[in-house]
Amino acid sequence: MTIGDDSEASFSAILKDLLNRSATTCVLTMEHWDRLANEYSEDIFSEALYHMSRLVLPAPEARDTIQAILQHQDGLCQALGRNVSLVTAMCDYFMQVNPLLREPILVEVNLLRQREESAYKDELTGLFNRRSFNQEIPREMERFRRFGQPFTLLMLDLDHFKDFNDTYGHSAGDQVLRDVAQILNDTARLYDRAVRYGGEEFAVILPQATREEATGVAERIRSSMARHQIDFAGRKMPPVTVSIGLACFPTDALDMSTLVQRADQALYMAKVTRNSVRPFCDHQRNHTRYILSDPLPVRLSDAANKMYAVARDISFGGLLCETDMPVARASAIDLVLTDSVLGIRLPIRAQVSRVMSHGDTYQLGLSFQLPSVEDQKSLMALIEGRTEPVPYCFHPDQRPPTST
Question: Do the domain assignments include residue 192?
Fold first, then answer.
């Protein structure tokens, strides 16, 4: 879902009740659906269609489709002189009126859910699997775009796990993996999602978690694992430690592949010492820098002057711009970022952190903070799709280890 976590449980309960009542009555109209959409979000239309048919449609198209199904249901009720369930009307609609379902089959909903759950769960650990991970990350990204809820990704890898398997056998290694899963489930919050990413590597998606909060969660996982006593076949196994890297959305990355890459790079850094936690860090700056594909006009003003500049790159903590007027280092600057196509006007209070002269032009490094979620959303919308991240390189003194 892409609605807020606080309302997700009640949303699901109301949706389930609505669909159950629709199965036996014809009285639920489009007005009922629109009231619920106004209370939660238009995602209710997409969610309802998915629950009933497993079709995935965007919210506007899903709304139009449900409206058409309700009209079809009303026609069937009048023609047959009896109640026709929403599911029955939907099946007839998708086969006869708008043939999106070519060969539908009847299946008990509990059986369907069991089979779907098995497709998204790892058989050994019971955690969610890579397929679920690939769906959940984009959902969290969309949640930020709609509601301004950031999230953090943890990537975890067991230390010296190959040596453990070689010494004690793969069955003992499987027990370690199950124990890790239990620790992740015990440590995670109700709405966190723990994933077996592959082999001895795990991931945890932490909705609404800042870098500091996520680091605290990661430290609890690391500490719990280091203290954990592994029991297998009546034997006490030596402890197995874990290294953890983390990256935050949107401050460290604006797309799924880069976010995973950043968390993985932080994990490599944690593997240098092992049994440690490392947030992603670019050694030259605090935030990932994005090069603008097209220069962005910026209006600047300080205590004495108003000027125009052109931004060359940008991050969630600052930007680099060019202007023809000198500005004193450490001075306060008011700047406005605009995008007429997107209708964005973002005023920011910044500080000049760097000044470089190039003939008649000056390069200014401006640093700022965006505590407002709405400002973060605006900045993300401004730079998304028109920038590309500067490739990250490992610090020369901190190369990743060659073995786990």
Answer: yes
Q: Indicate if 11 and 125 belong to the same structural domain.
A: no
Q: How many domains does the chain have?
A: 3
* Domain termination site, one of 279, 304, 336: 279
Residue 124's pLDDT is 94
Please state, in angstroms and rounded to a whole number, the distance separating the CA atoms of residues 247 and 215: 10
274: left (phi over 0), alpha (psi -120 to 50) or beta: left
The 10 Å Cβ neighbour count of residue 140 is 22
Statement: residue 53 has pLDDT above 90: no
- Whole-prediction pTM value? 0.68
**297 CB neighbour count, 10 Å cutoff:** 15
> Residue 394 falls within a domain, yes or no?
no
- Burial of 171-198, coded b for 16+ CB within 10 Å and e otherwise, reads ebbebbbbbbbbbbeebbeeebbbbbbe
CA gap 244, 255 in Å, rounded: 21
- Per-range mean pLDDT, top range of 84-93, 108-117, 376-385: 84-93
Residue whose tokens read 């795990």: 202
Distance CA 187, CA 45 (A): 34
